[in-house]
Design a protein that fits this description.
140 residues; alpha+beta; four-stranded antiparallel sheet; two-stranded antiparallel sheet; 5 helices; 8 strands; 19% strand
Length: 140
């Protein structure tokens, strides 16, 4: 189960008058699996640079690079521990996980990022003019 958190829209800053990109996270729970009860918060709005780096590492087969980048940039928090205590929510922590579990986390993040809906601020208006505009465009 995935619960997406974060504001729908960016927040306008008062001092500069600019637009602050909102932080978006998803809480991922693996209910019905061996990892049920282990929650993790994943960042959904990572930079394009980090996304492309992760994709390139995947194509190159650089599993260690992917785990480290993912843990350092996409992983916000988790409640995992081992016999020594809490596992850090970082690339170092990702490298200590069983391969199956690390792959499950990364796969869930990819699926979640691909399916995050873009919210509509306002309901759609009268679409009757859309057909007219399309007709005008076709006639030109």
């Amino acid at each position: 189960m995935v619960m997406v958190n974060g504001s729908k829209n960016g927040a306008k800053t008062e001092k500069r008058g600019g637009f602050k990109v909102p932080d978006k996270t998803a809480i991922v729970r693996f209910e019905g699996t061996d990892y049920d009860g282990r929650d993790r918060a994943l960042r959904l709005n990572v930079s394009l640079e980090h996304y492309l780096d992760l994709r390139q590492m995947s194509e190159d087969g650089d599993q260690a690079g992917m785990a480290n980048l993912f843990g350092d940039q996409m992983l916000a928090s988790w409640n995992l521990e081992n016999d020594s205590g809490p596992i850090p929510a970082s690339g170092v922590g990702m490298m200590t996980l069983p391969m199956e579990f690390a792959t499950l986390i990364i796969t869930q993040w990819v699926d979640t990022v691909a399916n995050v809906p873009v919210p509509l601020d306002q309901p759609s208006g009268d679409l009757s003019t859309l057909a007219e505009a399309s007709t005008v465009m076709d006639a030109e």
